[in-house]
Amino acid sequence: MKSRTIVPLLLAVATLFFFTGCQKAYYAAWETMGKEKRHLLRDNVEKAGEEQEEAAEQFEDVLSRIKSVYGLDGGELEDYYNTLKGEFEHCGHRADIVRDRIDTVEEIARDLFAEWEAEIATISSARLRADSARSLADTRRRYARLEKAMRKAESSMDPVLRNLQDYVLYLKHNLNAKAIGTLRGEVRSIESEVKSLVAEMDRSIKETESFIQSMEQ
After folding, report:
1. Structural domain boundaries of the chain?
2. pLDDT digits (tens, 9 = 90+) for 158-182
3. Rounded to an integer, what distance in angstroms lies between the CA atom of residue 13 and that of residue 7?
């Protein structure tokens, strides 16, 4: 088997192990490729930032779609609904990706910190042991800020998704100009929540960037 096919296969197997609860096998698979837990944490934090950015863009796109309904005639509303429904489903998919990635980051961080703490106890030099303990404590503090920001960004998606679902379901059975007028208030609410979501995502993304930089120092 060619090497270019082996690596993707190993990555797929490693990911499968992780999500089925076989963390030891997951970490072992990565270690064969030269990646320790600290590398995995950094990579997943970076991916978390990218996926939050993509989710924010998706939510902004669906907001733009909602606001574009005004001026459409009755014959275009069916197509508008079908497109909007698809974009709402994409939002839900993006939200699930963000949630799963944050869960992965948290699990790797927990395992890294536990391993780090256990290994500190085996260092015979008091000076090196104390220095490593300070480094661990500092990394934990920085990670706590990151986790808080990511979870806050994650929770900001929920009210938007609920309002979008209400909007799409109402529109499904009321494809007429009167219904569009009735939904004006909902659009303002969705717009406000999307702005809050994007702001929280931006803050979380900045925290991911800061955490990654600190790991590279």
Report:
1. 1-35, 37-216
2. 999 999 999 999 999 988 878 888 8
3. 10
- Distance, CA of 120 to CA of 14 (rounded, Å): 27
If phi > 0 it is left, if psi is from -120 to 50 it is alpha, else beta; for residue 35 that is beta
CB atoms within 10 A of CB 160: 24
Q: What is d(CA 62, CA 141) in angstroms, rounded to the nearest whole number?
A: 36
Helices H, strands E: what count in the chain? 8, 0
3-state secondary structure of 139: helix
Phi, psi of 3 (to 5 degrees): -60, -35
Residue 55 in contact with residue 29, Cβ under 8 Å? no
> Do 163 and 88 touch, CB atoms closer than 8 A?
no
Distance CA 119, CA 117 (A): 5
The one-letter code for the residue type at 22 is C
The helix/strand/coil state of 72 is coil
pLDDT tens string 187-209: 999 999 999 999 999 999 999 99
C-alpha 95/C-alpha 101 separation (Å) is 10
Q: Look up residue 201 and give its two tokens.
A: 């995502």
Whole-prediction pTM: 0.85
Choices 1.20.58, 3.40.228, 1.25.40, 1.10.1660: CATH for 37-216: 1.20.58
The Cα–Cα gap between 124 and 126 comes to 6
Rg (CA), the chain: 22
